[in-house]
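A note from the maintainers: we've had questions about how concatenated examples are separated. There is no special marker in the raw files; a new sequence line simply starts the next protein. For clarity in this README we add a label.
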Amino acid sequence: MKVIIAGAGDIGTELAKRLIADNHDVVVLEKDSEKISSLSNQLDAMVLQETGERISALVDAGVEEADVFIAATDSDELNIMFCMIAKKLANIKTVARVRNQEYTSHKILPTSEQLGIDIMIDPEGLTALEIAKLIKNPDVNEIEYFAEGKIELIALRVDRESELVNQPLTILPVSSDYFVVGIFRENGEIIIPKGEDKFLPNDTVYVIKKTGTLTEFSSMVRSEKKRVKNVMILGGGKIGFKLAKILEGYKKNSMTIKLVEKSAQKCHILSDHLNKTLVLNADVADINFLKDENIECVDVLVSVTGSDELNILTSILGKKLGTSKTIVEINKPDYEILMQTLGVDSYISPWLLVAGRLSQLFRKSSIISETFLKDGRAEIIELAAADDSSLINKQLKVLRLSAQGIIIGAILRNGKAIIPRGNDVILPKDRLIIFTRSENVKQVERLFCACRTAKKHQEIHEGMIAN
């Protein structure tokens, strides 16, 4: 596909890198001349300087031949205008980064469809929602929902005192409620688990289970249960503000929320718009301040300052001073592999959330959604099994998919969630939740999606490589 991206900030740049890696033809529009010089060296893409003032810029970028246009500049208004123009010029899918909720919630304004925007994305809003889910579920490091909310994926860190340490997966009791689908090691290794694989201290274990069920596996991994009473948010930017608003809106919310921001002007604005949050004007990296605010009593410390380095530093400080759990915003993929080593409990990458949200635009198959894990090297794929898939009506134990690095963690059939075992079979129209490494996604498409569509997709992919 040909994709045009306007705006080369963190989100735009990382999307461009991922799309280029997937053999898409990418054109980037950016107004900053220094960024253009850097991008030209980083990306195998056409990079054009554009301020957003010329309608002809989209024509110059080849919008009439493009499949997708993504407007990810820092201006909501410019993004909306870009998409409106692109839609007028071509039959194209459009995506706009829109962070101001007024544009999406006000009834007198035109809808996104009327504006010519197929998908509106709010990276900061998505990030705040993900962090809020982790605060609401403090015993897990990650949590995602699938199959109309009937299936959930959770990530758990193996405590050094856990009874599972150095034990093989075969010791786990057979259960119809959960399935261990992946293991991430401290060294960055991804394991598609087999019975003989062992749990090691600080492994991050991914488990698919029926939503709402309590499993004995959690208690085997974790030595104690947690309850959140005190939350401290470091950084009063868009993510920090939106997170505080979400937490304030929880029913039966008895938690204490503190938000720390260095800018006095921002603190006044935050105080005017937050009702149940204590806004504090201070340097987030000031150890004496953190001690004075009883950081050792904080159950969850959230670092969303806008600086990856400061987020990591404050998270480490919080852990050293006694905080129970830390959650960090990370924008640079290079830092992600360090998180487990540094002892950060959970981290959220806005660009990965956006990539997952937009992934369906770039798939020629029946994949419903893709969720990227860690630094994007593993994925959870939700798809509908095609009638003509070669795997229909065959027992899973016969297919030996784990040997190919693919695990079916759950099936939604006629509205019922199933955690499958070896004797289960795949039926047409089953909705499957699959865990795999990212390099196996095309193999998943070939196996489960319509043979005709998958073959066409493969021919397109091979043609791109050949060219």
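[label: protein 2]
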Amino acid sequence: MAAAARSTGRSGALEITHRLTEICGLPFARFAGPADEVAGRAARWVAVPGGSHAAAEVLRLAAAHQLTVVPRGAGTKIDWGAAPAQVDIMLDTGRLAGIWHEPQGSPVAEIGAGTPLRAVQATLDRTGQRLPIDAPSPGATLGGVLAADEAGPLRHRHGSPCAQLVGVRYLDADGELVSLGAAGTAPPGRAGPASGGAAALLGAGQVPGLDVARLLCGSQGGLGVLVSATMRVQAVPASRVWVTRPVWTPLEVHDLVRAILAARLDPAAVELDLPVPVPLPRRRVHPDHPSVLHRPDHPSVARRAGGPAAAGSLVVLLEGGPADVAERADRLVAVLGGETVVGHAAPEWWGHYPFGPGDTALRIEVPINDLHAAVYALRDAAGTPVPVRGSAGVGTVHAALPGSLPPDRVASILAAVRGVLLARQGRCVVVAAPAPVRRVVDLWGELPTLPRLRAAKAHLDPHQRLAPGRLPGGL
């Protein structure tokens, strides 16, 4: 601990700053500023290495001085999850960027962790390809999406981004570069000592490979620093349509989703939006004014629907060839009935979270047959409608509680919802929350995989240098 003590003094801090400047270059290493924090925990230095070799040197420097390192991409989810116990060096992956895909038609592409997802999609689009990934965070990097295991509407057909992972290159806590692919082997000269530990945590006789690579998914940088990921790519669909059906109750959503899945229409996404109803303006705006005429809670809309104003929307995305999509859309309209509409543009809320800065953001994961029970439980516990949005077709949705709720009130709501979900093999996770709430509530609830995660942390980061405390259980 002597080295760590020296690094806290002025001379030690200046020495580390000088070394970071040597490694990263003068404009890319500095003392941290007020905005350089992780879930409210301030960093001491910011390093922006220009490649995997420089990033490895940063990690070796941290190891030599017993400093902690927390990776950061675009920072779109930097406040998600628990605050780390300490942030000495914030390792910005912005220069670990690039797309090294094969010629047109290749089923995979290797992409730098710091590459913005929008840039990836724009580049692949030039060759008629895409990543089937639509993470909602604007400006997110691929590494950040994988580190948070963040998925959007396309998860219904393609799974999460981590399910589309073919291989990774990452740096372990000692700065060793490890390369792992689907076959579970590391190319010559690339194998690091972490691969042996990973094999141990998976059990005797098992080959690590992609299972170990996917341990990094959702790890918030607590198991390794992602350098690049090899992802599956696919042809851009020739046609896309969104089929929208107004809905009134969570139970109705349950029945409609079952009917959609039973019809075997191969939807790319099945998304639900249940916003909190906002009353029509009472003053100065006539009910026939264009600004309110087509609102779902307008009386004329309710009359056309044959009942009260719709509480939300259920929207199905169909992708494929034009003729095939048109035929499936017709069949889907017949299944959904009601006020079903077919459009060629996504609704405004599509691919956006229902929560905003300062809210307590929840993620609910439950078998689709029990999603309505989870939504009702959340409403009952909160004592009021709660905005809910997400992938009803796979039972994963997000919800928002007001940031003004006291921490003990949030804790009681979580306890009630988790009690309902426990018997249904579901989970409710706090994605993000104001600092007072984050300090009081259990962010994750029961986590059956915690022993495996603890073993992974012990093997891959035994000295607790990578984002300590970011993982469940304070790991």
